[in-house]
């Protein structure tokens, strides 16, 4: 595939110094992967990459604003383009374009080939990766970022168990090339996924250790696990901690009472089953 990375021109602490990575795929059916936020510089760069060719399709990896909100501006500039994503109704209605639903394992024409849809929920309920099987290249959206972890926003559709399952799914693909939505190209996806899984295991152990010592609120857990965290990062840290707590709750390891979380092990000997 003839692929050009187009920065989204939406810099920030989570999007990076030049914003999201979006990708133009040139060929008989030019396509754009991810819509960024509609910044004029991004639209102009997409037009330059197309070199006068029409934009046939925009494939959005998931409905978070930095990936999907630019769809409205793109539709205004290329009114014949099709917009495709896995449905997330409460998000999709924010971006007034005619979305065509994607399904797992669907083949989407792009450039001179096709992209296979790999459904990877967890970071968001509608998240997908896109695999070019002809070159063994994976457009990985927000699944992985070189050099830092991915937030699992628990109050905004994120589910840690699903995210971990999706990490295993893309690891099994063993792509030769991984093109993420943030940061540089990933040279060794297998190694990075291994680091991610170990990071999540360590974080879970920290949370269990803290709850073993005393019941905790989400806020007190954030303060103990991230003691020097800036104000700007308090919210995403809280989201990730809550994602871990919900996973542990689903496993039967912790419970919540009146806003406090505690392990399921009880200090009451009768509840412990000791009877002494």
Give your account of this protein's structure:
This protein is α/β, with parallel strands linked by helices and 276 residues long. It folds into two domains: 2-187, 4-Layer Sandwich (Metallo-beta-lactamase, Chain A), CATH 3.60.15; 200-263, Winged helix-like DNA-binding domain superfamily/Winged helix DNA-binding domain (Arc Repressor Mutant, subunit A, Orthogonal Bundle). 34% of the residues lie in helices and 21% in strands. The protein has a six-stranded mixed beta sheet with strand order 1-2-3-4-5-6, with helices on one face. The protein has a five-stranded mixed beta sheet with strand order 7-8-9-10-11, with no helix packed on it. Strand 2 and strand 3 (31-33) form a beta hairpin.
Features:
276 residues, alpha/beta, Metallo-beta-lactamase, Chain A, Arc Repressor Mutant, subunit A, five-stranded mixed beta sheet, 9 helices, disordered C terminus
Please write the string of helix (H) and strand (E) elements.
EEEHEHHEHEEEEEHEHHHEEH
Overall structural domain count: 2
Q: Could you tell me the CATH topology label of the largest domain.
A: Metallo-beta-lactamase, Chain A
Radius of gyration: 21 Å
Helical run tally: 9
Strand order of the largest sheet: 1-2-3-4-5-6
Quickly give the CATH architecture of the largest domain: 4-Layer Sandwich
Measured by DSSP, the beta-strand proportion falls in 15-25%
Low-pLDDT segments: 266-276
């Amino acid at each position: 595939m003839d692929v050009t990375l187009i920065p989204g021109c939406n810099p920030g602490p989570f999007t990076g110094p030049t914003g999201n990575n979006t990708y133009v795929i040139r060929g008989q059916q030019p396509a754009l992967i991810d819509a960024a936020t509609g910044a004029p510089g991004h639209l102009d760069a997409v037009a330059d990459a197309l070199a006068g060719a029409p934009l046939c399709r925009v494939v959005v990896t998931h409905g978070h604003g930095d990936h999907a909100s630019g769809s409205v501006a793109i539709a205004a500039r290329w009114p014949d383009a099709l917009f495709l994503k896995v449905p997330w109704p409460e998000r999709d209605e924010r971006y007034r374009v005619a979305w065509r639903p994607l399904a797992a394992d669907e083949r989407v024409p792009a450039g001179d080939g096709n992209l296979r849809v790999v459904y990877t929920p967890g970071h968001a309920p509608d998240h997908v990766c896109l695999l070019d099987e002809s070159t063994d290249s994976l457009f990985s959206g927000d699944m992985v970022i070189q050099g830092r972890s991915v937030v699992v926003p628990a109050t905004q559709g994120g589910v840690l168990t699903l995210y971990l399952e999706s990490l295993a799914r893309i690891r099994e693909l063993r792509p030769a090339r991984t093109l993420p939505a943030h940061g540089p190209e990933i040279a060794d996806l297998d190694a990075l996924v291994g680091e991610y899984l170990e990071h999540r295991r360590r974080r879970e152990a920290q949370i269990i250790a803290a709850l073993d010592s005393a019941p905790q609120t989400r806020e007190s857990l954030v303060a103990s696990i991230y003691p020097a965290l800036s104000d700007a990062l308090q919210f995403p840290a809280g989201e990730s901690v809550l994602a871990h707590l919900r996973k542990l709750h689903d496993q039967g390891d912790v419970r919540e009472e009146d806003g406090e979380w505690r392990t399921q092990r009880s200090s009451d000997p009768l509840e412990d089953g000791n009877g002494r």
